[in-house]
Design brief:
There is one protein chain. Helix content is 42%, strand content 18%. The protein has 644 residues and is of the alpha+beta class. It has 4 domains: 8-226, HPT domain (Four Helix Bundle (Hemerythrin (Met), subunit A), Up-down Bundle), CATH 1.20.120.160; 247-307; 312-493, Histidine kinase-like ATPase, C-terminal domain (Heat Shock Protein 90); 499-643, CheA-289, Domain 4 (OB fold (Dihydrolipoamide Acetyltransferase, E2P), Beta Barrel). The strands form 5 sheets. Strands 12-16-17-15-14-13 form a 6-stranded mixed beta sheet. It has a 5-stranded mixed beta sheet with strand order 4-6-7-9-8, with helices on one face. Strands 18-10-11-20-19 form a 5-stranded mixed beta sheet. A hairpin with a 5-residue loop joins strand 19 and strand 20 (612-616). The longest helix has 29 residues, at 247-275. It is flat, with a radius of gyration of 30 Å. The termini are far apart. Mean pLDDT is 76; it is low at 135-238 and 629-644. Keywords: Kinase, Phosphoprotein, Transferase, Two-component regulatory system. Residues 3-107 form the HPt domain. It is an enzyme of class 2 (transferase).
Length: 644
């Protein structure tokens, strides 16, 4: 039973608004570290925390009120010039925001959060009293000034989860802390049994244990003592099913619905006239006009409804400055994450699925992409690296780019690593150009790191990025210049609800292929087809492209020689899909197939004449064909047919 009985609606409203506020606060805190004298930024942060504290007080969440009050007082001192911000203070502040986030998770499960960790509260109190906190970052930049001797602060009773200070100088083990924070590539630890309390790891600052600045949604908020079994049982966190919609957009939907209602009445009247035998030219012309009007209105309504699902991508982007800041601080790098195009809108369901790929790409840019301060200075670059995360709408697609000005990627090194790890053979390696070599980083198990660390080296991550992007009917491309940096470009449809397709016909059956993969349509003549290594190819503008018969990919026997080719581009390569004929372009709503999951089929849709059209998953179809036996024999037979 919920501990917020009678306030469930208020609780959900509070969590929805406050989660967004806290994410915005986190993003602005990272900006504040760059511009500590920005009073406007400080005021925004102060107001955000004040709003969260007010809502928590209304819901009687004393633990959150107490923590927010201390943090709010700290912001007040900063904006009044009574304190000066430094990285150690920021670590404590970010620890507080992470704990508030953990409290949100507990409240989402209908439980009252426990008090914040005593060490964190003590550290906040110490900062408010004007005591300086001095920490030792294991990976601090070489040019960073040495920290002065720590000011002694009375320590609270130690807890079992503390990371003990180094015996030599009493400084905290920051490396162990950050390993715990950022080890997302590591194999997950065994899940605790229900009712088992798992405390958050702590770090000691001047003998004050502080909760790390990271959120662990599956773990209850750390407390000064272990809670009871009933308190610590954690229920699964449910995915948010609500969405905020601008009332202007809802008004547009309502107006269009009214217009459609009027047109429906007009059509009903015309139907009655026609059924009564009134078939004169004026009646038929009125019928045609009414149907055309209905077509326009339904299209407008469809677009208006889709817009109600669209959300600014900035709500997702604002999570990453904190991620980049924490990782760069651990690695001893100086990184500025620049966000652009935050107002670009994307379907809300796609935003949620896009989070994991972007986390991996931002982490890789900071870890692999940019150099250390010393390396950058030696290369004649500025000490601070720049990583840019941008979004822009291009037609009916959205383009997201992650760009860094780091060391770039060397195709020859990537090819060599893939060979050493047994991911490709020598023949394949020799046939790859530079662009194809870059794509090798998406292979499962690939990594250029010789040593496995808490951040990378296990060869997991980039293959997940590619898989998740493909699930969203998108693609990811790479450009890299050695010594100048790399650019990862993600291209996605604006929504998954409606898919633009090209409908083709083979063996008298229609099939739909994603229009995003289509570059152009070309005729196929037998004299154009050449055999290269036993495979059919066609040269298109000096580019040698393999020809793949759709009928053969489906495992069918061709009834006629294909006459047309669809030049398509997948995430890894380009090819020509040979088909019999075309039906045309269409925007379809994909329906999943119940209880059956054939290879290469994403779902089905209805054509204008009411017949069922299968929507093909080309990536899956190509992979299934590549792994099947007899591909070379089928290809040879296909070449003979084309040449006949």
């Amino acid at each position: 039973m919920s501990e917020f009985s009678g306030m469930d609606d208020l609780l959900q409203d509070f969590l929805t608004e406050s989660t967004e506020l806290l994410s915005d606060v986190d993003s602005k805190l990272v900006e504040l570290e760059k511009r500590p004298d920005d009073k406007h930024l400080l005021n925004d942060i102060f107001r955000g925390f004040h709003t969260i504290k007010g809502g928590a007080g209304f819901l009687n969440v004393e633990a959150m009120v107490s923590l927010c009050h201390r943090t709010e007082n700290l912001f007040d001192k900063l904006r009044n010039g009574e304190m000066t911000l430094n990285p150690e203070f920021m670590d404590v502040i970010l620890s507080a925001t992470a704990t508030v986030q953990d409290m949100f998770v507990v409240m989402q499960q209908g439980r009252m959060p426990l008090p914040a960790n005593a060490g964190l509260l003590a550290a906040l109190d110490a900062v408010l009293q004007g005591q300086e906190l001095h920490t030792h970052a294991a990976h601090a930049p070489a040019h960073a000034p040495a920290a002065p001797a720590p000011v002694p602060v009375p320590a609270p009773a130690p807890t079992t989860s503390s990371i003990t200070p180094a015996a030599t100088n009493g400084e905290p083990q920051w490396e162990a802390l950050y390993n715990a924070l950022l080890d997302t590539d590591a194999a997950p630890a065994a899940a605790p049994a229900q009712g088992t309390y798992v405390p958050q790891q702590e770090v000691v600052i001047n003998d004050l244990p502080v909760v790390p600045a990271v959120s662990h949604p599956a773990v209850p908020v750390a407390a000064t003592k272990a809670p009871s079994v009933q308190q610590s049982a954690v229920a699964p966190v449910t995915q948010e099913t609500t969405i905020r919609i601008d009332t202007v957009r809802l008004d547009q939907v309502l107006n269009l619905s009214g217009e459609i209602g009027l047109t429906k009445n007009r059509l009903t009247t015309l139907r009655t006239d026609i059924m009564a035998g009134k078939m004169d030219n004026a009646t038929l012309k009125a019928l045609d006009e009414a149907i055309s009007q209905l077509d326009l209105l339904v299209g407008d309504l469809q677009n208006a409804v889709m817009k109600t699902r669209m959300q600014p991508i900035g709500r997702l982007f604002q999570k990453y400055p904190r991620l980049a800041r924490d990782l760069a601080r651990q690695l001893g790098k100086e990184v500025d994450l620049v966000l652009t195009g935050e107002e670009t809108e994307l379907d809300k369901t796609m935003l949620e699925d896009l989070n994991d790929p972007l986390v991996h790409l931002v982490r890789n840019a900071v870890d692999h992409g940019v150099e250390t301060v010393a390396e950058r200075l030696a290369a004649g670059k500025s000490a601070q690296a720049q990583v840019e995360l941008s979004a822009v709408q291009v037609g009916d697609h959205i383009q997201i780019e992650i760009t860094d000005d780091g060391r770039g990627m060397r195709p020859d090194v990537i090819r060599k690593k893939a060979l050493e790890k047994g991911l490709i053979d020598v023949e394949t390696a020799n046939s790859l150009d530079d662009k194809q070599c870059l794509q090798l980083i998406f292979m499962p198990g690939f990594s250029t790191k010789d040593q496995i660390s808490s951040i990378s080296g296990r060869g997991v991550g980039m293959d997940v990025v590619k898989t998740n992007i493909q699930k969203l009917n998108g693609r990811i491309d790479i450009q890299s210049i050695v010594g100048e940096g790399s650019r990862f470009t993600i291209t996605l449809p604006l929504t998954l609800a409606i898919l633009p397709v090209l409908v083709v016909r083979v063996c008298d059956q229609p099939f739909a292929v994603p229009l995003a993969m289509v570059r152009e349509i070309i005729p196929i003549r037998g004299d154009q087809v050449q055999e290269v290594s036993g495979r059919a190819t066609i040269v298109v503008r000096d580019e040698i492209l393999p020809v793949k018969s759709l009928a053969r990919l489906l495992g069918w026997q061709e009834t006629e020689v294909p006459s047309f080719g669809v030049l398509m581009t997948s995430a890894e390569h380009s090819f020509i899909l040979a088909v019999d004929s075309f039906v045309g372009r269409d925007d379809v709503v994909i329906k999943p197939l119940q209880n059956i999951h054939p290879h290469g089929v994403a779902g089905a849709t209805l054509s204008g004449d009411g017949s069922v059209v299968l929507v093909l998953d080309m990536e899956d179809l190509l992979q299934a064909s590549a792994s099947s036996d007899g591909a070379a024999v089928r290809s040879a037979h296909f070449i003979e047919q084309l040449a006949a």
